[in-house]
Amino acid sequence: xxxxxxxxxxxxxxxxxxxxxxxxxxxxxxxxxxxxxxxxxxxxxxxxxxxxxxx
Length: 55
Fold this sequence. Notes:
The chain has one helix and no strands. The chain is mostly helical.
């Protein structure tokens, strides 16, 4: 009986961890996209500044 309860608890923990891994993965993907966009915008603004300095 105790082993069965322990196994159930372990399964529940595994399911929680697995679910959170999915959520974390989705959040990481979204954060990565946002970071990429910010980097691109920074590059564009740097190019704009250096282009303005030339003239």
